[in-house]
Amino acid sequence: MKLLAVDDARARMLAEIAVLPAEAAPLAQAMGRVLAEDVVAGRDQPPFTAAAMDGWAVRSVDCPGTLKVVGESAAGRGFAGAVGSGEAVRIFTGAAVPADCDAVVVQEDAQRDGQIVRVPRVAPETFLRPTGGDFRAGEVLLERGTQLDPWRISLAASAGRAEVCVYGRPRVALLATGEEIVEAPAAPGPWQIYDSAVPGLAAMIAGWGGLALRARPLRDELTSVISALREAEADLVVTVGGASVGDHDLVRSAAQALGLSLRVESVNVRPGRPTFFGTLSDGRRLLGLPGNPASAFVCAEIFLKPIVNAYRGAATPPATLSARLENDLPANGPREHWMRAKLASTDAGLTVRPYPDQDSSLVSVFAASDALMRRLPNASAATAGSVVEVLPLARA
What we know:
- The protein has seven helices and 26 strands.
- The chain is an alpha/beta fold.
- The strands form seven sheets. The protein has a six-stranded mixed β-sheet, with no helix packed on it. The chain has a six-stranded mixed β-sheet with strand order 16-13-17-21-20-18, with helices on both faces.
- α1 crosses α6, α3 runs parallel beside α6 and α4 (222-231) packs across α5.
């Protein structure tokens, strides 16, 4: 379980995660949620043949000709009467086409004179939207496991759904440790810094569809850490800092006091080697992240995001792309390296430039990055133009 490869460590973590129970959600609150059911059409859409243009509903056999206007069909208020030989109905876009008509003449092509309208020749089915042209009753519109976006929510609404059955949102408790951090707006002491990791992680979790539960930074006292871990009411507890083996790194000891069963002890990754994962005796999962912000954010992207997605029914590995290096790079060391980088789109395709300073404490570099560039252990030196693997970051 020590120094596992990134892919192996992630697989071990995901093997311990079960999708959360399903719940009903109003469409207005379903954005980003994952369907726990198929959404099936209850009726045809449109439920009638509709006009695609403003104009005149006609019988094509009467065209060209001079027709008598016998009524009007507007959206939401159709014409229920019969349309006989030599007759026409004024019609508007989206309105139901009378049953006796088989075409629409657009208003620009017709001349009305009182209750008479002159129309040109028109082919059957001209400017008609057929019954069920969008979808048919009984058709599966959205499959279980689909993540809802605005367009899919619109589709569910068009099928008459006011709410849908979706998987639950995981509760993720964030616990930061360390005497050196203080939560804004409190005034930091001379040896302290502001906590930047937890606010960033909370935003990431919310963006991924989880519920982030934040606690105040913990002091480096074993009893305090044990108490905080015990009291965290969550599906997943994420600790930030204290994951290594220094004199002030108490998270593992505290977790062991609560029956921690480790599945991942450390990962062969840079940054983020101390990352660990396991299960507490009460069944809650625990992910230990390093305290340096960049380390925590990198490991959140490659481990925490897939875990959150697995809880909410959207288990997918990080989706990487190929890009060409803009600059030369030396050979990589023995750990897999995820480098903060900047992407650019050119006529030749996607390019990437890693930032020269990859220090794991630099929040400003991560804020400027829009991708992580992956370098495998012991990768050879790479020259500009080489194809590399990148993980795009979700940026506004």
